[in-house]
Every structure is written in structure tokens, then in C-alpha cells.
Amino acid sequence: MESSFLIQILRTLSAAELIALRKWLHSPVHNLRNDVAELMDLLIKALRNGGGLPAKQDLYRQLFPDKPYDNREFNLIITYLTRQTEQFLAFREWQQDEAQQKLYVCRALHKRGLNQLVERDLQALEQKHHTGPHRHGEFFLFEYRLHGEKFAVQNRQQRKNLEQMANGVRGAIQSVSTFFLVEYLRWLCTAESLRSQAPSAMAGALPMTDAVLAYVAQLPAETNPTPVVMYHCYLALTNPEDEANYLRLKELIGRYGRLFPPTECRDLYMIAINFCIRRHNRGDRHYTREAFDWYREALSDNLLLENGVLPHSTYTNIHNLAHLNGEQTWAREFLDRYAPSLPADTRDNIYRYNLATYHFRQGQYDQVLELLQHTDFPDLFMHLDARKMLLRAYFERGEWLALASLLDSFSVFLRRQKRSGYHLENYRNLVHFVRQLLKRGQNAGLAEMIRNTPAVAERDWLLSKV
């Protein structure tokens, strides 16, 4: 029962949503089965109490005190209740889209031949639609549907205005074409992002890519801003060597970024940020500042929170970039200000890890040791970075026994990692050279070995000790 789809859905609902669902089930408009509504009452009571769910047999007994348990019948009730719950969720989503509701009303009125009412409502709906701030793919798709409803009404009129109908056809084609271009390019950017992570998974050409790119390349941004923005996002992803693409994208986002809703605008920012990070990783420090500025602007525009939650990787990236740009005061304030927005299940650990990183960069090793002793790490790279900070803290404080123990446990941890790669090799060499440093002390030969080894974490720090 606990693992059923129904219970998984119910556990995601707020108290207000559970109350609304109960009303839905007790309304004969939606549900005519009393056993379905009564089962929901029993489940809501159990969920509110916070304990485990009753067994299926116990629930059945409460529904039907005078009947022996029938597993088939109970499963059928569960199926009906799951279906009603899903319909309730679908209705809630539909309720939030007032424009789509109005369009369905127009469609229903049109089917009943009430064309004057349809024309009135479509005109009001069109005016409201065009006063909205966004011009993304969904805007043009809805505009296309409006043209379709208007054309259907005009086509049923006895005295047709052919010029008006021709304008409607032209408008429908323009809207659906723009929708296609924006959405095609948006998905093309997604494909390119995946290709950079898993080339084999996105191997091969995608249909119509060359034709779409050639067509959008000649469109003026002033009259076609959203497809042109997405086109330059694609260029920035596929041509990170060409700085002109990035500069043009930066200009376009500044001018037209607000034509996209917040979730899609965030994607634009992340494409620009990823371009900057790639250049930063190649040593171009100008782009270190650019990436940080993008993040700070996105924060001020409230674009980075997803359902009120700031992903822990974004939180860590922003903090690291702030330090790299010499913004230590801002970094410290950022940690406290946005800690409440971190995912609840990892909030304390992510905050402590980043706070330890802050103190580590200030050379405040006592605070580092205190924070990391009580911190768990949600991913491998944070775990490795935390061990690196502990290693340096023990060394700088001269805690040689603790350092020796850490080197042993760190070596065992690295050997147990099944994956291979540049990152793990960095840390293996760090452990090796710290051991050599403890044995040999300041040594010109050791310094040369550190310089000539391709993958070494904390290379500059090691060289400062030899």
C-alpha cells in the first residue's frame, strides 16, 4: 500500500490540497461511489496522524464491516480513487490557465452556433493575450489556436469576408511558424547540452537543423526577437571559441530576455554562464567575472529558484565564483541569505560545507575542522573537496597524527572508487605528494616532480611547502 501510486501522489499534496481533493470526491459531479470517497477519508486521517498506513484488510473492514475481505474489489476501489485523484490534479492545472479555459468556452459556444458570443469572447481574449509580457513558444502556440477559432467562426458565416479570412490564415501560419522555430531551437539547445555530456547518446544529425538555422540566421531580431535569441544560444553552445557569439547573446538577453517566462529566462542565463565557465576553465579570468555577474543578476531577478528552492550545486557555484572574484564579503552574506532556500533534506550539510570552504579560503582552519566534523556530503566531489580541506588544515596546524590517519583513510577511499578519471587522479597525486613532503621536507627534486605531474590537486600549495 505504501508504495502504491496513489499513496505516492497523496504524500505530495499539501493540507489545503487534501481538503480540496476530499470535496472533489464528495461531489456527485465528479464521483458517484461512496466507497471511493470514504476510503479517501480514511487515508487522509491516517496521513494526518503521521503514523504508518493501515493494512489493506483493515481499511476494507472499515469500509465494509459485514463483508469478508475481497482483494479484487479493494484493488478496484484503489484504481477508481487513483483515477479520480489524477483527474483532480489535471483539473487544478487547468484551473491555473485562465486563457485556456476561455478558449475552451469559445470552442463550446461555437459548437452550439453562438457565434456572436464567440466573437465577443475571442476579441477580449486576444486583447488580453497581447498585453502579456512574454513572447515565448507557448505565446505563439496559443495565438495560433486563437487564429484557428476565429477562422472557424468566420468560415461558418453566410456572408464571408474573404480578405479577413486571408489575414487570419496568414496570422495562423505566422504564429505556428514562430512557435515551431522557438521550440525547435530550444530543444536543439537541449540536445547540444546533452551531446556535450554524452556524445554517443546524441550521435547523428537531427532533422531540419540546417534549414532552420539558415532560415533564422537571416531574421532581424527587432521583429523576431525570441527565435533569434534561441539561435544565438545555440551558437554559444556549439561555438565556444567564438567570442562574438557570446557578446551578441549577451546583448540579446539584455534586450529581449524578459520576453521569456522566468523558467525559460533562467535557461538563457545558464547557457551564457556555461559559456563563461568553459572559458574560465581554460584560464580566461575575464570570464570568471562574467559568470559571477550573470549569477548575481539572475539572483536579483529571482530566476534561479525552482519552486522556491535553490539547487545546492548552484549555491556552491555562486559561492566559489564570488571568492574567485575577490567578493569575500558578498560571499559570506550570500551563504546566510540563501541557506533557507536550499533543499530541506540537504540544507544543513550544504550550508556547513560552503561555510567551511569560506573559512578555508580565509585560512581559518579551526572553523574548518569544526564544521567538517559534523557534515555529510551529497556527492563525491564535495566529499573529495572536504577531505582536501581537512588535509591542508591538519598540515597547517601541525597535527601530524591526525594528518597521517586522514592520508590512510583518504587512500582507501580513493581505491574503492570504481570510476576513474582526471578528478580522482588529482587527489591520488595530492595524497602521494603530501606523504613525500612529510618524508623528504623541502626538496628541489620533489618540487620538480610536482610541476611535471599533469594532474595534481592543490599544486600551488604543495609547491609553497617544498
Q: What's the layout of helices and strands?
A:
Blueprint: H1 5-10, H2 15-25, H3 34-49, H4 56-63, H5 71-95, H6 98-111, H7 115-130, H8 137-156, H9 162-197, H10 209-217, H11 225-238, H12 243-256, H13 262-281, H14 286-300, H15 312-324, H16 328-338, H17 347-361, H18 365-372, H19 380-397, H20 400-416, H21 422-440, H22 444-452, H23 459-465
Helix pairs in contact: 3-5, 6-7, 6-8, 7-8, 8-9, 9-10, 9-11, 11-12, 11-13, 12-13, 13-14, 14-15, 15-16, 15-17, 16-17, 17-18, 17-19, 18-19, 19-20, 20-21
Structural class computed from helices and strand pairing:
mainly alpha
Number of helices: 23
User: Looking at the structure, what is the overall shape?
Assistant: flat
Strand elements, count: 0
Question: Mean of residue pLDDT?
Answer: 93
Give the SSE order as H and E letters. Answer: HHHHHHHHHHHHHHHHHHHHHHH
Share of helix, binned: over 70%
Summarize the biggest pleated sheet.
none
- Bin the strand percentage: under 5%
Low-confidence stretches: none
Terminal-residue CA separation: 63 Å
Our Rg estimate from Cα atoms comes to 30 Å
Describe this structure in words.
With 466 residues, the chain is mainly α. Among the domains are: 5-95, no CATH class; 98-188, no CATH class; 379-466, no CATH class. The chain contains 23 helices and no strands. It has helices at 5-10, 15-25, 34-49, 56-63, 71-95, 98-111, 115-130, 137-156, 162-197, 209-217, 225-238, 243-256, 262-281, 286-300, 312-324, 328-338, 347-361, 365-372, 380-397, 400-416, 422-440, 444-452, 459-465. The longest helix is centred in the middle third of the chain and has 36 residues, at 162-197. The radius of gyration is 30 Å and the shape is flat. The model has no long low-confidence stretch (mean pLDDT 93).
